[in-house]
Amino acid sequence: MTDFVAWPPEFAERYRELGYWQGQTLGDFLAERAAEHGSRIAVVGGDNRWTYQQLDERATRMAHGLLALGIGKGDRVVLQLPNVAEFFEVVFGLFRIGALPVFALPAHRHSEIEYFCRFTDAVAYVIADKFGGFDYRTLAARIPGLRHVLVAGDPGEFQALDSVPADASGPLPDVRADEVAFLNLSGGSTGVPKLIPRTHDDYLYSVRESAEICGLTTESVYMATLPVSHNFTLSSPGVLGALHAGSRIVLTPAPSPDIAFPLIEREGVTITGVVPPIALLWMDSPARGRFDLSSMRLLQVGGARLADEAAKRVETELGCKLQQVFGMAEGLVNYTRDDDPWDLTTTTQGTPISPHDEIRLVDADDVEVAPGEVGQLLTRGPYTIRGYYRADEHNATAFTKDGFYRTGDLVRLLPSGHIIVSGRVKDQINRGGEKVAAEEVENHLLAHEGVHDAVLVGVEDPQLGERTCAFVIPRSPEPSPAELRRFLRERGLAAFKIPDKIELVDEFPYTGVGKTSRRALAQAIKEGLEAR
Ligand code: AMP
Ligand code: DBH
């Protein structure tokens, strides 16, 4: 089994010659930023206000502390921190010793975390004590095989983050920029989530370019509104882009207007990135009138398709410019630009970061579609992975022979090069930016003894774009939808993956079209529902 699939040497050489891959590690990146912006505030989170210098020192201390605990180069560490300042000292501490953070989301529960820990042979798990009404220590107690559980806050039976040894002597391991820096998560479309290995070189290239495209400067205040470990919030331009530019990062524990708006006012936030449902929530919120949001320059919206009608409301209702962002943790990120005309900003998902992002639009037979036609988006480039972590079999189909990533997105290209996302071919439901792999949820449902068969489909929803509906053929004794929902929660599935609706049926509706595959079946059900 291959852990990491590298770029072919001729591509790596080209990206270096172009100056895209600069040979800098993320650990050195922070040190360089701290040397330049030392006394500026880098991170504001809760009661913490750390300067670049303080963050740099904390990261170094953490690096030595982690080493002293026996965590070393190449080790995997599952990280599940909410938007707290400690995220940064741990992540950069890990980068500095060449250990790989595995970026879990706060919403993940036992099913996902146990899998990440097992699949990556993680040596440690880093959590906050409690967040959003959930005690992560109860989750940690159920994960076997971990050498360390480190807790930001009250450690309970585990070890407090701030108790890791503070001795900062001795050398740190040698970390190379072409090595993998961390493992990101993919929404995925199969039974288990996929892990995405990103190198220091490739990630920093996308971060520097993103900071430039989004106009970040030392005057910018970037608010992390979505979870900070999400690829959008990390790198598009995200918190890393903010650090690159010497900007200030503000962490909001929740995106709701009652929490985010006062922070925008207090900290003078100039830019943030949200998913479409949050953009709608903010525009529709009566709280908008009660807070001064006039510092906001740019609202980035991505993660799921923003309806054109909603896009057109952003500027007038929130008093800032809109930027659409179409990205993926696997790599390719597209942005609408500051000088794009209004109609392109409000109806397209932008253009790729790099002139060396290669884009192909193909039909089901991998044949290039005619210009202007909708096709499946394939991409290859200086920051798009060539393979998932430990996934030889899946990689054989998720990538073409010549290394293009099959995004599973259906898109159209305008003559200007702007991309319009019009659908997808992957077995995934995009629930307002939260990706749900149909097969993963179906497998959990099938584990219930009262379930004969199950299919998860996405149905249109005005707020979320789409929500999930499970069609279940029961066997006796027949479980109720409430019982099935409880069953999924008890199996430790993240809340956003629990079906919004569960319908018990005798047979799958609308199977007339000859079900050649589960996906054909799901598609038939969906079309039947839409026709109804
Ligand atoms: P992931 O691979 O889990 O990081 O999710 C990336 C996927 O999110 C993309 O392949 C798209 O399907 C979807 N996505 C992200 N941004 C947008 C957007 N602006 N419009 C439509 N879909 C998006
Ligand atoms: O949805 C995504 O994964 C996403 C959206 C916007 C992303 O990874 C990104 C920007 O970098």
TrEMBL record:
Coiled coil (UniProt feature): none
Keyword Transferase attributed: yes
CDD domains: 23DHB-AMP_lg
Keywords, sorted A to Z: Ligase, Nucleotidyltransferase, Transferase
Name of the protein in its database record: Enterobactin synthase subunit E
Species for this entry: Kibdelosporangium phytohabitans
E.C. number(s) listed in UniProt: 2.7.7.58
Source organism phylogeny: Bacteria, Bacillati, Actinomycetota, Actinomycetes, Pseudonocardiales
Top EC class for this record: transferase
InterPro entries on file: AMP-bd_C, AMP-bd_C_sf, AMP-binding_CS, AMP-dep_synth/lig_dom, ATP-dep_AMP-bd_enzyme, DHB_AMP_lig
AMP-dependent synthetase/ligase domain mapped to chain residues: 31-389
